[in-house]
Design a protein that fits this description.
With 767 residues, the chain is mainly alpha-helical. It is built from 28 helices and 9 strands. The strands form 3 sheets. A 5-stranded antiparallel beta sheet has the order 8-7-6-5-9. Helix 4 (125-144) packs across helix 19, helix 13 (377-395) packs across helix 28 (747-762) and helix 20 packs across helix 22. The N and C termini lie far apart (76 Å).
């Protein structure tokens, strides 16, 4: 490795371990970990630049025109020139992250930048796309290295004095590494097309190599007896179903539902009069028992969902049962028929009743004993249960019709899965179950995201792959789940970035609103007990209030600039009142510096031309002379048109939020709701009822200045801003409510729970 490729020493003084109070026995260890990680990362980054020329040359050969080809050839030369600077900045950032970690330094909070019109605009397309590239790289590493990252976080926490690492605080975590590279590229004027290639190479050589870095770091720490017995397990949290949790000496498995095997259901009989069991094995046992009771006492009645039982299609008097092979062959024929004309029928729902009729027709037409065979009770129950599951999907209000219709065509292959493997019902992690849940969740979360066609096309692609390709191998569902989740991950990151931009914009506007209120209060105080001519009063209330806002945001309320701007406002208000001889003499002395500062303030706003500023100042001086000459009628007639408020333009519709709301009398219930709302976490979903329409919105931000709540839709777009008192009143009147937690449960879990409760009522097990 050349000296150029080696990481440079961190900038500034190195934090000593003694200054942190880290135990002396860790001193050599942490430096060893730093050296290991920095050397590995340096080697990986070398691989990035070693491949740049070849990659750009290949791109140039395939370029669509000479201009693009020239771009690739020019970029080869530019990247060679910028390489030392990029590598140096990258290594310095990584090293500084580690030194900051050792020094116990927290990440600095993002501060609102100096206000200007651009501050309130969305980020540019190139910046947005670059953020997506970085976010996607980081997400893939987090998913792939979940276990080793968690272990490294735990062990680094020991070195960190036992303080738990927050999200993305690991100095060698994927977020820190990716952002270090992005920061190193930032000064380079590469077009997005070239940056995309660099990110692709960085992902291939560095991000994909983080697996070995984390394994090596964990091994080094284990050898040093830092949490050597750390193991992975999944702990069930009482009352919350299955969720990964760490126990002392243990770390959670990947963030998904724990793997179960048939027979893991809790022992003992299921209480059929109680609520649906949280354990999937017990839930399936309870469903089987309730279906058995229904078959014995209500065999002729339709099932929940209105569809007849498959048993009702069997020939009367049939005593023999179909073999499992005969049933599978009938389903295979149905699947083949469905595959032949699937493309033309994907826009029409596949009804459960029609599929049952077709299945019976297939069984009967190929029966070796026509009119004498029927399905076994177990097979009939499974077919009915799968039918009720798809009836639930077609009736689910959470899903838009286009997505329900697409999912309904999975009925036949999922019936094959259920008959071959009851784990579809008894195991949360079952690949076919997870795929169905993921597609349904995507349809709920991203239906209004502007990606309907893309998401629907992806769903159709998955359905076609399952209908055409499923022959009993569950690995198909695993591969489709990975590909679908990768696609949805892109949608999710777009939504998250869009919501983040909405929150940042709201914070900027909130800062404006707070400054505006402070400026309004200052002017209101100056106008108290003073009757001023219209031009001076309007100038102070409208134009100079905006000047005060901009000065306050730029310099703060303890600055000389702020103090002088307030003083000028006081002098102007004072000059609009009749003065004695001494006052008039003083005004004569103050006029020139006052007018100069008024000019500077108007230039700061940027809404005036030089001629406009001169005329306005002349009108203000003329008004002062009229007032001091005891000619109030003349002063009243002086009128100078003022331009639209720049602040109002920047605030847009949010300008109304700055107005102090009229006091409202709140009931005890509303006051209690306000206290509950104040404790809510961001990310809580609400349901708003507006006549026949219902909207599901997420609480995304709360303004401490205006006490307004901001809500976004599933696409991350800001939809509503509402005062906390109004939200409490709407909740009191039933116009708004929290979305019940069960509404956020996976589709199959919600469906089986709903089927269980309906069967309970059907069999008289509950009221």
């Amino acid at each position: 490795m050349s000296n150029q490729d080696r990481p440079p020493p961190p900038p500034g003084p190195v934090t000593t371990l003694a200054s942190r109070g880290i135990q002396p026995r860790f001193g050599e260890l942490v430096q060893s970990c730093r050296k290991l990680a920095m050397n590995r990362l340096a080697e990986h980054l070398t691989g990035v630049f070693d491949q740049v020329d070849d990659t750009l040359f290949e791109c140039a050969e395939k370029a669509e025109n000479n201009q693009v080809q020239t771009l690739f050839f020019d970029s080869m030369r530019d990247i060679r020139k910028q390489r030392p600077q990029i590598e140096r900045a990258y290594h310095q950032c990584v090293a500084k992250n580690f030194e900051d970690f050792l020094g116990g330094k927290l990440k600095p909070e993002l501060k609102a930048s100096e206000l200007d019109a651009d501050h309130l605009q969305l980020m540019g397309n190139d910046e947005y796309e670059e953020s997506l590239l970085v976010t996607n790289m980081v997400s893939r590493v987090k998913s792939r290295c979940a276990q080793s990252l968690f272990a490294l976080d735990q062990r680094l926490a020991v070195l960190n004095g036992g303080r738990k690492l927050g999200d993305d605080d690991n100095p060698f975590g994927p977020q820190a590494i990716a952002l270090a590279f992005r920061g190193a590229l930032e000064p380079c004027p590469f077009p997005l097309r070239i940056k995309t290639i660099l990110y692709m190479l960085f992902d291939r050589h560095v991000m994909q190599g983080l697996d070995s870095v984390y394994e090596a770091l964990n091994q080094r720490l284990v050898q040093a007896r830092v949490l050597p017995n750390l193991k992975y397990s999944v702990q069930r949290s009482p009352g919350t179903g299955h969720s990964p949790a760490a126990t002392p000496g243990q770390a959670p498995d990947k963030p998904q539902t724990p793997r179960e095997t048939p027979g893991t259901a809790a022992s003992g009989p299921v209480d059929l009069a109680g609520g649906p069991p949280s354990d999937p094995g017990q839930l399936f046992s309870g469903l089987a028992a309730l279906l058995g009771e229904r078959r014995q006492h209500h065999s002729e009645a339709p099932l929940p969902g209105g569809t007849p039982s498959i048993s009702s299609y069997a020939p009367r008097g049939a005593t023999r049962t179909y073999s499992a092979a005969e049933l599978l062959e009938a389903l295979n024929r149905l699947q083949q028929q469905s595959a032949q004309d699937l493309a033309s029928k994907l826009r029409q729902p596949q009804r459960v009743e029609g599929l049952k009729a077709d299945l019976q027709q297939q069984l009967e037409s190929h029966s070796r004993l026509p009119g004498q065979q029927k399905l076994s009770d177990y097979e009939a129950d499974v077919i009915d249960l799968v039918g009720m599951l798809f009836d639930f999907i077609l009736d689910d209000d959470n899903l838009a019709d286009i997505y329900k219709t697409a999912l309904s065509h999975l009925h036949t292959p999922y019936l094959k899965v259920a008959l071959q493997d009851k784990a579809l019902f008894t195991q949360h992690h079952h690949p076919a179950r997870r795929l169905l849940n993921s597609m349904a969740q995507a349809g709920v979360l991203y239906a209004g995201e502007g990606e309907e066609r893309g998401l629907l096309a992806k769903m159709h692609w998955v359905v076609e792959r399952v209908v055409h390709g499923f022959s009993g191998d569950l690995l198909l569902f695993d591969s489709l789940l990975d590909e679908f989740n990768e696609y949805v991950g892109t949608l999710r990151h777009k939504v998250e970035l869009r919501e983040q931009r909405a929150v940042e914009a709201a914070k900027g506007r909130d800062k404006l609103l707070g400054a505006r209120q402070q400026a309004v209060d200052v002017v209101a105080r100056l106008l108290t007990d003073r009757e001023l001519p219209g031009i001076i009063q309007h100038f102070l209330e409208l134009t100079w209030t905006d000047v005060l806002v901009f000065v306050l945001l730029r310099h703060g309320d303890r600055s000389n600039e702020w103090q002088r701007s307030v003083e000028v406002a006081e002098q102007l208000a004072w000059s609009g009142t009749p003065l004695d001889a001494d006052g008039r003499a003083r005004l004569q002395q103050l006029r020139i510096p006052m007018l100069e500062d008024l000019r500077k303030g108007l230039e700061l706003l940027g809404g005036y031309h030089e001629d406009g500023i001169r005329r306005l100042l002349q009108d203000l001086v003329a008004c002062q002379h009229a007032v001091q000459s005891q000619q109030p009628q003349v002063a009243a007639r002086i009128n100078s048109p003022l331009p639209e408020s720049k602040l109002g333009e920047m605030l847009g519709d949010d300008a109304a939020l700055a107005k102090t709301p009229r006091p409202v009398s709140l009931s005890n219930r509303a006051q209690a709701l306000i206290k509950e709302l104040a404790r809510l976490e961001f990310g809580t979903w609400f349901e708003f009822i507006d006549g026949p329409d219902t909207r599901i919105l997420k609480l995304s931000w709360y303004s401490p200045t205006t006490r307004n709540y901001m809500f976004v839709d599933h696409s991350g777009q800001r939809v509503a801003i509402m005062p906390i008192t109004q939200l409490a009143l709407d909740m009191e009147q039933g116009l708004a409510r929290l979305v019940p937690p069960e509404r956020n449960a996976p589709l199959v879990d919600r469906a089986l729970g709903a089927i269980y409760r309906v069967l309970q009522r059907f069999t008289g097990r509950s009221a």
